[in-house]
């Protein structure tokens, strides 16, 4: 018994010493999607901004596959020492409903570090769509029930999730057309092969600015300050009461990571979120930096719990699952 207590004491002391010296080697932020996408861009911008306040090198590792769940699993099972972190988006809240079997528990296998940003979404259509505003689009949808194609970037993607809520809010079933990424979905929308799509401003802004698609509204409850989108109504005020969808990003560590390490990472994150260059880069993506209580671990987790409660019923009602 004495030997066991001694071993535990030594282990605790070792963890404490390691936490005090953290970080003494590079910190890896796992991105659960391929390089080049919106989440990868956010991670690389954050890595640059958080490096100085954290006091060490930060590198990005892309672990793509299975709708992001492979990357989540890798971090959930990583050593809880603060050297492997996860930057994840709304999939943290939607995967529990989308996937029948997950190798991690979204609420219990991670330490929540803070929310980073929120990315608004826009409802867009092919350029040949006859409707010129949301009221006209609603009439067109009503007149074309059973013939409407709604594109998305794949199961679990932001466009898929927004499309689910859009159909439920409109009380109309549309033919969902999943693509392997936003690129091919946008190409077919511009070409008129599909009718509608709801996607992040990071993917739609340039197309709207170039008049390559028609835009009908933003998914936030407030108007956006982005010049090309500032005159668009919110879908809430356009008639879809309560419609509010953003694609957010948060930072996580494996469960059991020492509190001293978590506190240091959270402090560095808060400093990074005030970095002028980081703001500039995120604004170029159409993202809004979080500046409220959700940058704190407890409020971050409460927010994700609410998101799980919001998305779970919508996904289950649609009956669209992945193995």
From TrEMBL:
InterPro entries: BUG, Bug_dom1. Pfam families: TctC (PF03401). Residues 1-19 form the signal peptide. Keywords: Receptor, Signal. The keyword Cytoplasm does not apply. Belongs to the UPF0065 (bug) family. This is Tripartite-type tricarboxylate transporter receptor subunit TctC. It comes from Sphaerotilus uruguayifluvii. The lineage of its organism: Bacteria, Pseudomonadati, Pseudomonadota, Betaproteobacteria, Burkholderiales.
């Amino acid at each position: 018994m004495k030997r066991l207590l001694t071993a535990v004491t030594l282990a605790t002391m070792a963890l404490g010493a390691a936490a005090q010296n953290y970080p003494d080697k590079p910190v890896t932020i796992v991105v659960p999607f391929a390089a080049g996408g919106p989440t990868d861009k956010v991670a690389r911008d954050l890595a640059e901004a958080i490096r100085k306040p954290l006091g060490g090198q930060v590198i990005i590792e892309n672990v793509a596959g299975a709708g992001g769940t492979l990357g989540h699993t890798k971090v959930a099972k990583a050593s809880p020492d603060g050297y492997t972190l996860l930057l994840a988006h709304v999939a943290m809240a939607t995967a529990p409903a989308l996937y029948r079997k997950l190798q991690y528990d979204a609420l219990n296998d991670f330490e929540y570090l803070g929310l980073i940003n929120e990315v608004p979404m826009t409802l867009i259509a092919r350029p040949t769509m006859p409707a010129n505003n949301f009221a006209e689009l609603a009439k067109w949808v009503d007149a074309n029930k059973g013939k409407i194609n709604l594109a998305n970037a794949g199961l679990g993607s932001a466009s898929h999730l927004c499309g689910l809520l859009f159909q439920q809010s409109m009380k109309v079933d549309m033919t969902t057309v999943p693509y392997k990424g936003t690129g091919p979905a946008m190409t077919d929308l511009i070409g008129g092969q599909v009718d509608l799509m709801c996607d992040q401003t990071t993917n739609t802004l340039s197309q709207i600015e170039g008049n390559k698609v028609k835009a009908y509204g933003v998914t936030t409850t407030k108007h956006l300050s982005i010049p090309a989108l500032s005159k668009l109504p919110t879908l809430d005020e356009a008639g879809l009461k309560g419609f509010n969808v953003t694609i957010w990003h948060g930072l996580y560590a494996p469960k059991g990571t020492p509190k001293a390490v978590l506190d240091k990472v959270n402090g560095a994150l808060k400093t990074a979120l005030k970095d002028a260059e980081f703001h500039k880069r995120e604004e170029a993506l159409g993202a809004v930096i979080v500046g409220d209580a959700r940058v704190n671990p407890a409020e971050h987790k409460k927010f994700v719990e609410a998101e799980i409660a919001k998305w779970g019923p919508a996904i289950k009602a649609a009956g669209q699952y992945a193995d």
